[in-house]
């Protein structure tokens, strides 16, 4: 049965069952492979997307729950070829090594800054604690989020 | 000392060879390279120096034939430079650091260089990306190639202008004549020609002290592709008509298939069930259907009774084979007479240390996309050994290696955990049966169960010491965990050091630093215990027994930055130090811990690291800090639990890895030795983390923790504390 999804501002008709998890539909039906599989148990955050601006684990989200919501993936952050300030800050801080966690980290950070444009170090750590970086680039990720949050960067939501 | 030797490489290879293959019991019955490249200059390598043993043609007879010229570098007419290397990028930043070294010698901008990596059809043979070998071997290799190209271009321009080559200068991607102010870009010089330049005698290389591009913080290549999600990992590859695969896993390790009823799966539209020997898998148009099909299969397995975790440490000691001094056998190092050393010591100390099995947990699990076309097999997969996986595939399907192409997209990490080609072989088997390309991505549970582990082990140390703190005897026996980093950096007259391999209960293999973190843990905790025995400050005790200048330098650098003994320890606050040397690099780590009841918080880690001349300081700092974070996990809480051939915690919810909230304040001090050749940096920075933390915990609490992980459930209860702080040392007077 076709399901209508709103992803990165476009409507997509997807032929999948309502209990299919969003992650696999994004990756395999829509070709949006920027969202990653890391554990399938909601424990690593590699699959983080935004649902109506809030962070969600797409490996845990059945289509029936996301229908009617605005889904934003890492591919939807750039505007007119311009990186989102969080993306820019990750590049500037080189806040990655293998970078497999990066999409999920950035989505979680974008969600945090929308909710709380000036988070403290503790608030960043709390908000991102469900996202794993096995390469251990956490200090740089925290620095990047702080950088993206500075008023000088002209933070947008 | 501790320079890597051919012997180390053999160890590395042996450790790989020791990884037990998964059991499938299959019953299955060069290159048009120059055409591909177009005109321009190609720099090739004639195999003649020992250097190429590792990264050049080697072992494979087809690659040893003279006609298989290895092309390393191509300069196109538009000036673009393409470099070919069999090394792979798994997050260690060599795509960037190697490009910098090429740019340095070729005198072009780093951004004009593209590296083709880990593609068995295009890149020269390479043994694999492991052992911190890329920087000390592939770096010089590519610098040589690039310098040869630069010199050849100068020759070409000299010929063109009929001038003496000494008047010509290579800079900024071109050759210019200092007198006439004429200049050619490299592209203009090579235009319309097919030039094949062989590397002759080693050309002059820029010394690190004069580096302008190497040695600087060139930004990571492809940064933008990573933050936009555009980079394609193996698990992101999509091929026309591609199906998704799943593999039916045995009920336990070493299990054999007794009966199979796939009828439930076969009824699902679009599903193909494959059985070949003990291998069972399915393909379907989408992953959800493949998973449903897998769940619809009924299989019965029989498995032999197997060792459980409870008896692991007794088992590895018992299972050690006694004969270790045969030539070619496991490593054994002796100097002086250990018996004499121990008997002449004022005090001796004997202790045992243990390390658990741990998992690599690369965030991208093993993944492969396999495609058969006209009897040729192409596989995209994340592996550290593209040529090894090519050979595995050729062997599994009984086809020549030239019918197999393995491509390794920049991969979602490895840490020593992706040496084998399991996912590649499985995907290829499924694709062969389905007649269409197949993607196979291991689930996290599969990754935790069917990959291989960092070996568990027991390490017995017996040492002898004089009252003045001179260490004179050192007996060190490692059971099963491995021989890397076995030898101490200290000056000790009487040594007997031995590795005892066993038949391990779990599939085991390389891990970041191999066994060196385990051996450093045992050694550096034991050093701390000895300092306690003679009543010396742990830093002073190490200084007293250390003559190696590079080791001393990192020790002093770490102690100074940390402010060693600037503050007093207390029952709630402790400080620890540890030293390491391995693979041509040196590390010293200081840790500060805070104790609250049975909780331990690592507050601060300061690490000094020296790996010769630094190629990219920013990338290096990232590696070192990352290794510290990864080291926290193995030090504090990571452990694989198992029983009778089954993994009991194959999920992230039950296997704890370091998170943001575990983060101490991390300070990295890089000691840049521009007078020394660069060494690798991916492994050594992890080695002193666990002992530094353990020693800090002892400093605060008097609790000596000798097993990794040290505090999976917090500190042991008070009654288990064996060495109260105020009590005299635990050594045996003689």
What does this 3D model show about the protein?
The complex is a heterodimer of chains A (157) and B (734). Chain A is an alpha+beta fold and 157 residues long. Chain A has 2 domains: 2-76, Ubiquitin-like (UB roll) (Roll), CATH 3.10.20.30; 85-152, Orthogonal Bundle (DNA polymerase, domain 1). Chain A has 6 helices and 5 strands, in the order ββαββαβαααα. Chain A has helices at 22-29, 63-66, 85-93, 102-115, 121-128, 138-149, and strands spanning 2-7, 10-15, 48-51, 54-57, 70-72. Chain A has a 5-stranded mixed sheet, sandwiched between helices. With 734 residues, chain B is α+β, with helices and mostly antiparallel strands. Chain B folds into 3 domains: 31-227, Aldehyde oxidase/xanthine dehydrogenase, molybdopterin binding domain (Aldehyde Oxidoreductase, domain 4), CATH 3.30.365; 237-303 and 366-441, Aldehyde Oxidoreductase, domain 4 (2-Layer Sandwich); 320-357 and 453-733, Aldehyde Oxidoreductase, domain 4. Chain B is built from 20 helices and 30 strands. In chain B, the strands form 7 sheets. Chain B has a 7-stranded mixed sheet, with helices on both faces. In chain B, a hairpin with a 5-residue loop joins β6 (174-177) and β7 (183-185). In chain B, α5 (94-106) runs parallel beside α6 and α16 runs parallel beside α20. Classes of the chains: A alpha+beta (157), B alpha+beta (734). Chains A and B meet through α1, α3, α4, α5 and α6 of A and α8 and α19 of B.
